[in-house]
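User: Teach me something about this protein's shape.
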Amino acid sequence: FFFFQAEDGIRDRLVTGVQTCALPICDAYDALLALGFQMKDVRNSITTVRNQGKKLSTEELIKEALAELR
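Assistant: First, the predicted structure itself:
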């Protein structure tokens, strides 16, 4: 999935335009499933990591869950 953001970011009288960017939207489940892991294994590894009680970013959660899967 991608989230598209556009803004009128150019403020020069000789140049007009709109800046755009596409930001990927992905959660930990999608990232690990995309690597070919099975849903039940992904669910179990993410649950194990979350039960450790640490406050993690999505990227950190993916890394720790991936370590559980390996």
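Now, about its shape. Residues 7 and 16 are 12 Å apart (CA to CA). Residues 39-50 form the longest helix (12 residues). If you'd like, I can walk through any region in more detail.
User: That's plenty for now, thanks!
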